Amino acid sequence: YLLSGKSYLSTEASVSKSDYKNNETLNDTKWEALLGYRWQSTDITRLSALVGYQKIAFEQTNLSDDNSVKWKLNADWQPTPIFGLTLSSSRDYVEANRLNDSFRKVDSYLLNASYALSAHINVFASAGYKDERVIYINHTDSEDYLVGEVSVNYNRNEWLSFYGKYLFRNLDNPDPILNYQRNSFSIGFSVSI
């Protein structure tokens, strides 16, 4: 809904049902409803803020249903055509990624920066934090992730590009045996046909 020339009242709503053939304990239905504001004062600045409610309900009673506040925040600032910053934050339910019956409530905060050194070379950097609450049948764990990435992309032409990427990931878990710090470096190329 247009409030003025540059601002909008915005809504999002969804219902999704997940069925797991090999693990029916995780069959669930998720409801989300968000209300917020979108604003673009100029081509340089854009802001989106949505706040609402989310609920997850399981078909079986092994896992308890859960509900919480949900948000999606996004701020873009691009003062020049070659440089841009994006700050984003959100809360969401995420599917389990372990063999145990569980689901995750994830709060994420991310800052991205991009810079075009030339018409062919781009640099991208990202830093973020994730607070994940893993909900099991009989207890809840909290995991904190720090993530960072730096990449350089060279676009040779319309169909060929090369890249180099450094990725950092750190996990802080209540169980010290699960804590880790991962560093990786990759190089590669991409061909578009």
How is this structure best summarized?
With 193 residues, the protein is mostly beta strands. The chain has no helices and 10 strands.
The number of helical runs is: 0
Cα gyration radius (Å): 20 Å
Instruction: Write out the strand line-up for the largest beta sheet, numbering strands in chain order.
Output: 1-2-3-4-5-6-7-8-9-10
How many strand units? 10
Terminal CA distance: 40 Å
Instruction: Tell me the overall shape.
Output: globular
Q: Provide the structure class.
A: mainly beta
Describe this structure in words.
A hairpin with a 7-residue loop joins strand 3 and strand 4. The protein is globular, with a radius of gyration of 20 Å. The chain has a ten-stranded antiparallel sheet with strand order 1-2-3-4-5-6-7-8-9-10, with no helix packed on it. With 193 residues, the protein is mainly β. The chain has strands at residues 7-18, 28-39, 45-58, 66-80, 83-94, 102-116, 121-136, 140-155, 160-172, 180-191.
Task: Describe this protein with a few key phrases.
mainly beta; globular; 193 residues; 10-stranded antiparallel β-sheet; 10 strands
